[in-house]
Structures are given as structure tokens and as C-alpha cells.
């Protein structure tokens, strides 16, 4: 059985040798990954990892650090592969964003329920003007009021509805929501 040499304390010479070889380490990694910035990141990561174990070196510090670099390159490649697969899987997922028509239907159902809680003349004004698209003048004729009174009514109806939405939906009223379960 071969005897394992005990770990020697970290010496200034060992650290100096590692620091002096930085350019060679960087070139070694860059040849393997093909990107200077990525190589610098990997060398930095390997240096951080090795600081915890530099006291365990039982051989040439330079040879030991090249092994740490190889392992760090492999670890980085594995993480990148996993990240790439996750991105591909995400890209392959069907678009789950609601269409404008779906969103409009959800909002309309919610707002219609809340509009029904308003005074009947306000609910009627909103239905005819905002939902059905009638002109204010036409609504005024239908309701038997002046056009200016109809304008005031629809303004007040919209304000009342806005308050109802804020009361019922809380922050959804300010920030929007796609899962309208307001009661």
C-alpha cells in the first residue's frame, strides 16, 4: 500500500505559483470553451472552489489546479446543458397567454357582474353606451333625457363602476389580473 503524504500547510510559495500561472490557466480554459469572458469566469470559479482545499494539496500545486480547472469546465458544461434543455422545453411549450378575445371575455364577465350592482339607470347607461356602442345622444333619446344629462349619467356610472371594481378586485383593479375570480 502506498503511503498518503499528509497535507502540507499553504505556503506563500504555493499561492505565488498559482497566481503566477494565472495567464496559463486562462489560456488553458479559453482553448476549451472558446470564449475569453467565459474562461475568466471559470478560472475565477475554480480559484474560489480551490481556496477551501488548497491546504489538502499533496502534489504539485499547478498540476492539482489544472485538475480543478478540468472539473470546473465539466461542471460548467453540465450546467449549461441543463439550462439549454430547460430553455428548449420552455420554448416548445404552447403559448398559454390568453388571446385578446379570451381576456376581453373574462374582463367583461367580471365587469358585467359588478355593473349589475349599480343603480339601474347607471347599469343601463353603461350597457347601451360602453357595451352596445350606442352614441350618448342616442342613449339620451332612448332614456328620455337631455344629451348633457346623459353625459353626466354615464360619467357617474363609470365612476361608480370603477369604485365597485376597486372594492371587489383590490389590487387587480390597479395592476390587472388574468384570473378574475372576484366576488
Describe this structure as you would to a colleague.
With 183 residues, the chain is mainly alpha-helical. It folds into 2 domains: 12-92, Rna Polymerase Sigma Factor, Chain: A; 100-175, Arc Repressor Mutant, subunit A, CATH 1.10.10. It contains 9 helices and no strands. It has helices at residues 12-20, 22-33, 36-51, 61-92, 100-115, 120-131, 136-143, 147-169, 172-175. Helix 2 (22-33) crosses helix 3 and helix 7 packs across helix 8. The longest helix is centred in the middle third of the chain and has 32 residues, at 61-92. It starts with 11 loop residues before the first helix and ends in an 8-residue tail after the last helix.
Strand residues, percent = under 5%
CATH architecture of the largest domain: Orthogonal Bundle
Shape: rod-shaped
CATH fold description of the largest domain: Rna Polymerase Sigma Factor, Chain: A
The top level CATH class name of the largest domain:
Mainly Alpha
Tally of separate helices: 9
Write the H/E string, N to C. HHHHHHHHH
Which stretches of 5+ consecutive residues score pLDDT under 50? none
**What profile does the largest beta sheet have?**
none
